Amino acid sequence: MIRVVVADDQALVRAGFRLLLDTEDGFEVVGEAGDGAEAVVQAKVHRPDVVLMDIRMPGTDGLEATRLISGDPELGDTKVLVLTTFDVDEYVFDALRGGASGFLLKDVEPVELLHALRVVAAGDALLAPSVTRKLIAEYASRPENRRLHPSALRELTDREREVLALVAGGLSNDEIAEHLVISPATARTHVSRIMTKISARDRAQLVVLAYESGLVTPRRL
């Protein structure tokens, strides 16, 4: 059972998501929030698997709420899936930097939303859709958004840097294994070690770091 908190400032939107999830096997909506502050409270009370987070809400917005939830050690198992109205929104990249595991457009098809929640709840990051790569590439290409020095990767081996670049390209562990001619288990081990070394929450954080450190650029992907 995937337990979800729905955070959106529009009651009808929340009701729509609740109706969809409560009628689908394997999902349970355990809480709702009309703003970011309440989303944080609901996350602490219910410890959901995923918070479905609208990024633009009054008061404490979804960006700040994402940072607070992702930065709380007691909510280490709670993932944040961000919702946005726009396919290119600079706040979404900030949400990924702040700990979100991915994002979706609000007009997403129901089957895609359910898939996304399953992916994020399983501990993976929703990075495969082309719109996500487009967003990260466009926003990260701006010089003012390069926040990390390449030395941030100094703890990684050459092979781990190679794996990190492939993760940033949107490849799954199986695809990385095929590309490097290694076993899927070895690919998973590399990814896990990279996350440990750079204290990344999930694959979304790996992508952010790869761009911010300059390991990869939009032109290379």
TrEMBL record:
Domain Response regulatory: 3-121
Annotated positions of the 4-aspartylphosphate modification: 54
Pfam families xrefs: GerE, Response_reg
Alphabetized GO MF terms: DNA binding
PROSITE patterns on file: HTH_LUXR_2, RESPONSE_REGULATORY
Signal peptide extent: none
GO biological-process terms attached to the record: phosphorelay signal transduction system; regulation of DNA-templated transcription
Domain HTH luxR-type: 149-214
Keyword field: DNA-binding, Phosphoprotein, Transcription, Transcription regulation
PANTHER family: TRANSCRIPTIONAL REGULATORY PROTEIN NARL-RELATED, TWO-COMPONENT RESPONSE REGULATOR
Name recorded for this polypeptide: Response regulator transcription factor
Lineage start: Bacteria, Bacillati, Actinomycetota, Actinomycetes, Pseudonocardiales
